[in-house]
Amino acid sequence: MDYWIIRKALHKSKNPKIWQSNNLTLHYLCKMEKEHLIFGIRAIIEAINAGKEVDKVFIQKDAQGDLMQDLMKTMKKNSINFSYVPVEKLNRLTSNNHQGAVATIAPISFVSLETLVESVMESGKKPLFLILDQLSDARNFGAIIRTAECTGVDGIIVQKQGSAPVNGDTVKTSAGAVFNVPICKVDHIKDAIFYLQGSGIKTVAATEKTEQNIYDIDFSEPVAIIMGSEDRGVNPSVLKIVDEKAKLPMFGTIGSLNVSVACGAFLYETIRQRS
Asked: RNA 2-O ribose methyltransferase substrate binding domain: from which residue to which, for each copy (predicted)?
């Protein structure tokens, strides 16, 4: 039986035994795809506040703390179903640090590149996009999304194949920011770059393979910043077509930064120039 049919049936069920025992529910939830689960108190609060379809929240029995109280208030305010369960049942749902809260949500929705660019242009804002070229680590993806939300990025563009999934790790690491930043999936990064360039948006790749410093770049105009994968950086074929390339100055013996840290440096330099 399809998971979504089961989920809707359980959600609409009037039989209290189903929700009181949770055994049937958890049996199917443990078999569901992990990207349909989110864990962590703040991530769940952000999902609810963003209007996402949160179907059910499982709360650890005897869970306490100010943040947990905030979650309880948010759930009650938005009429979200929740149940108290032993920590062992939460551990069955995820092996990650769930902080005593796990929720089921509908899959993240993505926007098309055309819709994303058009909506930003029509808003009158100066576009700031982020392109992730083959970034594969879900936690790095989540950290980047969190920074992107904090710096007002208008949208994140990723390739359908070879990119990190939007799963529970991504949601939790982003502290729920994934629900506030539009994400676009494209077939090929290079096609997306050509489209952005044709729309009057400058493309800047972060790479060590250049002599140009980040502080030599004008980020005050409409721009899309391209970050590469954790191990290989930006693809050489992508570097050939971007408008500009820039690197961060390094003063230690380590040759590179974590991609999420480097991304933060590029985004905050953009904010500095625009403020």
From this structure: 37-111
H helix or E strand, kind and range, residue 206: strand 202-206
Are 155 and 201 in contact, with CB atoms under 8 Å apart? no
Cβ–Cβ < 8 Å for 222, 183: no
- Taking each helix axis from N to C end, the angle separating 66-77 and 41-49, rounded to the nearest 10 degrees, works out to 30
| Three-class secondary structure of residue 58 per DSSP | strand
Domains present along the chain, CATH in parentheses:
3-105 (3.30.1330.30), 113-274 (3.40.1280.10)
| Strand bridging mode 101-105 / 183-186 | unpaired
> C-alpha angle with apex 216: 214 to 221, nearest 5 degrees?
90
Chain segment 226-253, per-residue pLDDT in tens: 999 988 999 999 999 999 999 999 999 8
Q: Which residues on adjacent β-strands are paired with residue 185?
A: 158
* Coil, helix or strand at residue 129: strand
What's this model's pTM, rounded to 2 decimal places? Answer: 0.73
